From TrEMBL:
It comes from Shewanella vaxholmensis. PROSITE patterns: GATASE_TYPE_1. One of its GO terms (molecular function) is lyase activity. Heterodimer of HisH and HisF. The active site is at residues 80, 185, 187. This is Imidazole glycerol phosphate synthase subunit HisH.
């Protein structure tokens, strides 16, 4: 069964609404032991990296996700801060360890000497490069973003990446084997977001 992790730092209501619309069975979980039996995992998150990471580690979800994702190979999709938590380290609110599933750091978006508004908020094209999870979604489709920090991936990390441009190329989506992360909010991205989530459920 699909399990949606509630760290109390996520936009849970909107995610649940879309998953119900898609029509798949799911369970909203608040305890790490409830990950048992997961066929897929969605990890939403909003707010600061440090607050979300601390909550994840203190609750025991970090260890449980490590077991189910890295050992049991359960597909996972991190959304917004949930994607950022897949990284090794985040600097927002002070340097804090993430899950380390992706060899990356999460750093503040460059405002280009004040010429860009931070946070990056609104609709932006995503260059999907024929990545399978974007099946039936046109390349350069618009998705909804709200973030001030972005994932910077190590050059030697073997991942698939879709970008958006906001003064520079920013990682909008990352994929390493069965591990997926979306910096955008698919649950707020209307039809393309619904298709993206449907693809994760059906294809990954």
């Amino acid at each position: 069964m699909l399990k949606i992790v509630d760290l109390e730092v996520g936009n849970i209501g909107s995610v649940i609404k879309v998953i119900k619309h898609i029509g798949v069975d799911f369970e909203l979980i608040t305890l790490p032991e409830q990950l048992i039996g997961a066929s897929k995992i969605i990890l939403p998150g909003v707010g600061s990296f440090s607050a979300a990471a601390q909550k994840m580690h203190k609750s025991g979800f970090a260890e449980a996700l490590n077991e189910h994702v890295l050992i049991n190979k359960v597909p996972v999709l991190g959304i917004c801060v949930g994607m950022q938590l897949l990284a090794t380290l985040g600097v927002e609110g002070g340097s804090t360890m993430g899950l380390g599933f992706i060899n990356a750091t999460v750093e503040r978006i460059d405002n280009l000497n004040g010429t860009l508004i931070i946070p990056h908020m609104g609709w932006n094209d995503v260059y999907s490069n024929n990545i399978p999870i974007f099946q039936n979604i046109n390349d350069n489709s618009c998705f909804y973003f709200v973030h001030s920090y972005a994932m910077r991936i190590s050059e030697n990390e073997n991942v698939k990446i879709a970008y958006t441009n906001y003064g520079e190329n920013i990682v909008a989506y990352v994929n390493k084997e069965h591990i997926h992360g979306a910096q955008f909010h698919p649950e707020k991205s209307q039809q393309v977001g619904i298709q993206f989530l449907r693809n994760f459920i059906e294809l990954c």
